[in-house]
Amino acid sequence: LSPGAKMGCFTFIKVMMILFNLAIFLSGGTLLGVGIWVKVDGESFLDIFGTLSSSVLQVVNVSYVLIVIGSILLVIGFLGCYGAQKESKCLLMMFFSVVLIIFIAEVAVAVVALVYTGLAETLLSAVVTPVLKEKYGVDTAFTQIWNTTMTQVHCCGLNNYTDFDDSVWYETHKTYPVQCCDMEQPCTVTLAAQKTPPLAHPRLCGCLLQGCFDQILEEIRTNAGVAGGVAAGIAALEIAAMAVSMYLYCRLDEK
């Protein structure tokens, strides 16, 4: 290519880099703002958008997740946008490094999730079950999230109805949540046990109620193609962002 064509190509890629990372920066700012809003005034957020019904949000603190993701996107967007605009080799290399670290972390998490699903279940159970025993029936928003999830996903607890043993809810009402008995009342231990898959077949589907973790895994397996496509798309964007930042970095040497 002629010097003019090379310069035109460089300028085009630079502008695309700026616009792409500006969009990331604005998205990060939005997520950060929403995360802070949920943290400070979660009740008004639920009043506006309704009870959260996602089958995975009950195992995490939504506000902190939004704040962390928003902050990361803000940093990435700033480094990429400002680095390209100022043609700063230092900022472009920092952008490349941050995206590379995130990419490696995502690959590592995916591998661990595939290989150590049982370990993930154990860790989740160790973290979530005590919170479930303590907050279910006490924290209104937490209880609504669990109730909506268990009703829509057709599941009970994280593992099964025994997650509610010795819980504040059980000690107060002497019954399990109605979702653990397929909406039949009163939800006694005998009825809950009848609705639960036998231990020999803990992932048995059908009319029997599984734990929400098992149901989430089933949904992920059912939609593995969509999830894989989204993951591949994100990975492709990250690789493209790294390639563009490295291209600009190298072209700055030539300039």
- Report the radius of gyration as a whole number of Å: 24 Å
Largest sheet: none
Task: Please name the fourth-level CATH homologous superfamily of the domain at 104-196 and 205-230.
Answer: Tetraspanin
N/C terminus separation: 15 Å
The top level CATH class name of the domain at 104-196 and 205-230: Mainly Alpha
CA-based shape:
elongated
**SSE topology string:** HHHHHHHHHH
Q: Indicate the CATH architecture of the domain at 104-196 and 205-230.
A: Orthogonal Bundle
Strand runs, count: 0
CATH topology of the domain at 104-196 and 205-230: Cd81 Antigen, Extracellular Domain, Chain: A
Query: What count of helical segments does DSSP give?
Result: 10
Portion of residues in beta strands equals: under 5%
Question: What's the overall average pLDDT, rounded?
Answer: 79
Low-confidence stretches: 51-60, 200-206
Structural class: mainly alpha
Considering DSSP H and I runs of 4 or more, what fraction of the residues is helical? over 70%
InterPro entries: Tetraspanin/Peripherin, Tetraspanin_animals, Tetraspanin_CS, Tetraspanin_EC2_sf
Family: Belongs to the tetraspanin (TM4SF) family.
Main location: membrane
Pfam families: Tetraspanin
Short descriptors:
Cd81 Antigen, Extracellular Domain, Chain: A; mainly alpha; 10 helices; 255 residues
